[in-house]
Amino acid sequence: MVQYDRVVRSTSWSPGPGCHGGCGVKFYVRDGRLVKVEGDEDHPYSHGRLCPRMLALTQYVYHPERFTHPLMRVGARGEGNFEQISWDEALDTVEERFNRFKADYGAESVLFVQGTGRDVGGPISFLCYSFGSPNWVQLGLAGHSCYTPRLGAMMATHGDYAVLDAGQFLPDGMADPEYRVPEVIVVWAQNPAAGCQDGFYGHWVTDCMKRGSKLIVIDPRWTWFSSRAEKFLQLRPGTDAALAMGMLNVIISEGLYDKDFVEKWTSGFAELKARAAEYPLERVSAITWVPAEDIAAAARLYAAGKPAAVQWGVPVDMAPEGTSVAQAITHLWCLTGNLDVPGGNVIAKPAFDVTTYPFSTQELHSLYGEDFVRRLNEKRIGAAEFAMLRNFRGWAQPDRTVEQMLSGKPYPIKACWIQTTNMLGGQAANTRMHYDALKAMEFNVVADLFPNPTTMAVADLILPVASIAEKETFRSWWSPLQAMMPAVSVGECRSDWEINLELAKRFNPELRKRYDTVKDLINDRLKPSGYTFDDLKDGHWKFPEKGTPTRPYRRHEKGLLRPDHEPGFRTPTGKIEFYSTSFAAWDMDPLPFYAEPPESEVRTPELFEKYPLVMVTGRRSPVFFHAEHRNIPWLREADPYPIVEIHPSVAKDLGIDDGEWVHIENDRGRIKRKAKVTPIVHPKVVSVPHGWWLPETEGKEPNLYGIWDINCNLLTHIGPGSASGYGGGAYKTALVAVKKIQEGEE
Ligand SMILES: Nc1nc2c(c(=O)[nH]1)N[C@H]1C(S)=C(S)[C@@H](COP(=O)(O)OP(=O)(O)OC[C@H]3O[C@@H](n4cnc5c(=O)[nH]c(N)nc54)[C@H](O)[C@@H]3O)O[C@H]1N2
Ligand SMILES: Nc1nc2c(c(=O)[nH]1)N[C@H]1C(S)=C(S)[C@@H](COP(=O)(O)OP(=O)(O)OC[C@H]3O[C@@H](n4cnc5c(=O)[nH]c(N)nc54)[C@H](O)[C@@H]3O)O[C@H]1N2
Ligand SMILES: [Mo]
Predict the structure, then answer these.
(1) Has residue 722 been placed in a domain?
(2) pTM of this prediction?
(3) Are residues 675 and 620 part of one domain?
(4) Domain tally for the chain?
(5) Which atom in ligand 1 lies closest to the alpha carbon of residue 233?
(6) Whose CA is nearest to atom 17 of ligand 2?
(7) Is the CB of 67 under 6 A from ligand 1?
(8) Separation of alpha carbons 361 and 372, rounded Å
């Protein structure tokens, strides 16, 4: 038993576990020090369960290498020499240098760069717009191929986000009398238990299975879920669109769809029917490697499920034309009437419509005025080229951004504000290109917790960030609305909100009138809920009341979705649009279709001869979050080496033994991995986890913690492979060869 004198109840989100967050946690504190973390058994989301990363938080918070003071680089980049400076000096430097770039080259010459959806989305967009730059970007995420393609497809089709209903938006969860367990769950390109992706607690799928849900799993690799599935479709990576079109074709041609629902609530059915007919199962089977009878059986099983739900993952976004793939899958739950019904794909909304910051163009309009948004779009990288980017979500296009950093055209990029991404260790496709682009910057600020390849190679100024156990903020990614509470403090570390609010006020003094402290800003954001931060703290999470717009079910019937309060959906026509008028307006195909991966046995047969294996990168490890946690002993012990999973038949042909170090290569480069010979991968596929760097090795140039030896993104390429500017980051489809390391080779 650990001794403690205080327990602080909070909610998980990064930094610490990494993660998209949401679990209830209890921080045990003794003499001002965090001594233990446990799951909060009363929490409606996670019921006391926690992931290994959260349980290892004490090693993370008190890690000996953690940044605890602002640091200024001395000597050349990459030499690893930094000197401690005060916060005032650090913030003065940022203010002075950024303002100089603004005066000389325009605010757009400074990029505001983030990684995945940690709670930094609010602080970073706030800082970016307060400075006046349009270029808020997930730099390195090729094709912006995470989440946004799915989000875009759902918004276009039915006006809102939808997710497998595990009762998560009801205070009593699965025990609520209105709730129904899905009869069938399609786990599509996701490993929910390893990832707890996008505010979805992965073990809810297991909870549903315990209550009778049958599974269909669509994945090139066996997972815990596929081994327990009614139907496992082991498809060729990147061909999900063809599979979805084949399933739509079966459901339509066999009359298995919900005719009343389609009649009453949808438009464009005839057009979809015609498009789906272009995908007979023989064609789909040839594209996907999945036997035609398995596709038909899966389609019938899904359509028979009353209710049924799809839970899907990032490989959908990363497929060529990810937005279109997501559209095809969205149509499955719309055709079968499984939208916003108990146990189907339920519409997810941030509780009480509270968000950490404005993410939609609509909200930006209301906060800053249409004129400001129009001006942002004039300069936002990619906005002129991609109509979807201009009209849907306020991000710059990542691939065009890195190209512009190197070319200086149409205008120069001079500096990067980097907060929550270790691009050179994790996020960036084509690591070398991003390394060159970041080196070309005159000034890079990194706000992070630990030294890593990115801080080492390119940081000029480092700001030490508070961990989850040290910060005050809130979480509103779906329901419930909840507070994150500080339990301890470490060195001079500050939270992302503290850092960004202080700088935002310097760039835009008007803000001083609105916000004195971070608490003021939080309370301002919380206003639509009627609660203040103090109402939420100490475990007082809040769910919206029944019958209100941010609580399910069947809101389309009750006029709870549309701004005009009429029944229907929040789309331009008020209907579910199988034929998307939004896509048409964004110069995209209004109907879903299949596109072949940029490199493949079909599209580039010569390349395939040289590189006969499809490299699927980035399947999630439960003990790591992207490039994080390689330095946390308890976690690293569970997953010690950068591996490649390779099928026994292929390993045998290549003379490769289990545990042997091998080369993986293509025309872009060569890396080393430890072979894990296993039948769980398809024989034509190798699975290569991403985010690998070796904190135990030399950090300084040229080694940079070993990234040039082991980072799989030396072999991936940038995009966008898509007409929308979203999707098609080829993280799951690059062609490679695996080779035994010959004697004499390093
Ligand atoms: N522990 C942990 N959790 C995480 C993360 C992490 O790094 N660590 N990262 C977070 C982030 S940002 C994201 S986006 C999510 C991602 O998490 P997921 O959406 O689960 O994505 P992956 O782990 O890349 O792949 C999931 C499964 O898809 C399979 N797959 C690969 N290619 C294809 C394909 O082309 N088609 C199909 N049908 N299946 C394919 C893989 O074999 C794998 O089993 O996880 C989030 N959660
Ligand atoms: N090959 C390959 N590459 C991939 C993927 C893949 O599947 N395959 N997946 C891609 C996807 S889907 C995504 S979303 C990206 C994600 O990639 P990123 O989100 O950029 O993840 P990391 O590169 O691990 O960088 C996170 C950094 O932020 C720091 N950090 C963590 N939490 C916080 C915080 O709250 N505040 C601050 N200031 N810092 C914090 C960590 O210490 C770490 O250095 O990776 C992409 N990269
Ligand atoms: Mo992601």
Answers:
(1) no
(2) 0.97
(3) yes
(4) 3
(5) 38
(6) 427
(7) no
(8) 11
